Amino acid sequence: VCIVHVWCVCVCVCVSCIVYVWHVWCVCVCVCVCIVYVWHVCYMCYFQFLFCFIRFFLYYKIFFIFFCIIRFFFYFFLFYKIFFCIIRFFLYYKIFFCIIRFFLYYKIFFCIIRFFLYYKIFFCIIRFFLYYKIFFCIIRFLFVL
């Protein structure tokens, strides 16, 4: 589990770096595109402005798809985190039941010891009454003689 966790963290860090670099590159491209659009608006006629506007919406769609991909990666990493929280919960749950099982066996063990202790006391009492009876039989026999 430890090796898988380290591997997943490495993959997450690499993907995060790639996404960050890609985001910086896209921001630079977006700034350049905005500068080009401003130039078109300032120096071109109305129709050229209209075509630039259409082109802007086309780029907007491309960036929208890119941000959907980023959102997918965000949800994927969120799911990955939730998944490992669930695994951790079941691991703690298993440890908790191991502790409960240990105390249950511990209680059963002491019940067995207690049983043998009572058993020994019971047989000591029986032995005492048996010796007591033999003792009085011997005394009675001696008195009869």
Short key terms for the protein model shown above:
145 residues, 97% helix, rod-shaped, transmembrane, transmembrane helix, membrane
Account of the 3D structure:
With 145 residues, the protein is an all-alpha fold. The protein has one domain (11-38, 52-144). The protein is built from 2 helices and no strands. The chain has helices at 2-43, 46-144. The longest helix has 99 residues, at 46-144. The radius of gyration is 43 Å and the shape is rod-shaped. The mean pLDDT is 72. The chain crosses the membrane at residues 22-46, 58-80, 117-143.
Q: Strand pairing plus helix content: what structural class?
A: mainly alpha
The sequence of SSEs as H and E is: HH
Query: Fraction of residues in helices?
Result: over 70%
Reported for the largest beta sheet, the result is: none
Overall average pLDDT = 72
Shape: rod-shaped
Number of domains: 1
Q: Please indicate the percent range of residues in DSSP E strands (runs of 2 or more).
A: under 5%
End-to-end Cα distance, whole Å, is 87 Å
Low-confidence stretches: none
- Strand segment count: 0
In DSSP terms (H or I, runs of 4 or more residues), the helix count works out at: 2
Q: Rg from C-alpha positions?
A: 43 Å
Task: Detail the topology: elements first, then pairings.
Layout: H1 2-43, H2 46-144
Summarize the structure.
This protein is mostly helical and 145 residues long. The chain has one domain.
